[in-house]
Specification:
Elements: H1 8-18, H2 26-39, H3 41-57, E1 59-60, E2 67-68, H4 74-77, E3 82-89, H5 92-100, E4 106-110, H6 128-136, E5 142-145, H7 151-166, E6 174-177, H8 193-201
Parallel strand pairs: 3-4, 3-5, 5-6
Antiparallel strand pairs: 1-2
Length: 206
């Protein structure tokens, strides 16, 4: 077994940095740090270099605000996308989830957050001004609000809807909210009552 690092401050600093990852507590961060130093120093160096490189080269897309290495991302420049449709999501991971469903061929706008007064996040922090400018473009005919179904996500969806009504855009564009309901393959007896109630309210004609 190889020796642990001589400088405890460097180890503590590494563990503290790893704690910034979502879902990683103090003990897990310490285990990760010790594993990298004891069993995979090459991997640790690769991880460090990759993080530094990503921070240096990744920026926000000028059009949709997602992460990209170019001024405009590959989705926004893709000739096959329907430029009349705009899907509004909270984060790049939400964008990827919608993309992987293969159900959307329009464009996106990524808020990079959601309204949360308790955390000091308001419309300005989630780039509502840029979203308004994007929706105002003549080419956009339909807006799908696909924020999450959390209290913050619902508040964000309501704020977007209110903004569009205040600017008169709700009458000019088709505005809809991502539907909620019973998941594919779900059995009613195992689904929470709130989801069932929403599915009943949003039922559609066959």
């Amino acid at each position: 077994m190889s020796a642990l690092p001589a400088n405890p401050h460097a180890l503590e600093s590494l563990a503290e940095a790893l704690r910034r990852l979502p879902g990683v507590g103090p003990k897990t961060a310490q285990r990760m740090a010790l594993h990298l130093l004891q069993h995979d120093r090459v991997g640790a160096e690769l991880l460090g270099q990759s993080l530094l490189n990503a921070v240096r080269v990744i920026r926000h897309c000028r059009e949709c605000n997602t992460f990209t290495e170019e001024e405009v991302c590959s989705i926004c420049t893709h000739a096959g996308r329907d430029r009349s449709q705009l899907c509004v999501v909270e984060s790049p991971s939400d964008l990827l989830a919608v993309e992987q469903s293969h159900a959307w061929r329009g464009l996106y706008f990524v808020l990079m957050g959601r309204i949360s007064p308790l955390e000091g996040v308001g419309p300005r922090e989630i780039h509502m001004d840029r979203l308004l400018a994007r929706i105002s473009a003549d080419e956009v005919k339909e807006v799908v609000i696909a924020t999450n179904f959390t209290p913050e996500g619902e508040a964000t969806a309501h704020a977007i809807e209110s903004m569009l009504k205040a600017k008169g855009l709700a009458d000019q564009k088709k505005v809809s909210r991502l539907a909620r309901g019973v998941p594919v393959g779900g059995e009613l007896e195992y689904i929470d009552l709130g989801t069932i109630a929403q599915a009943v309210r949003e039922r559609r004609k066959l």
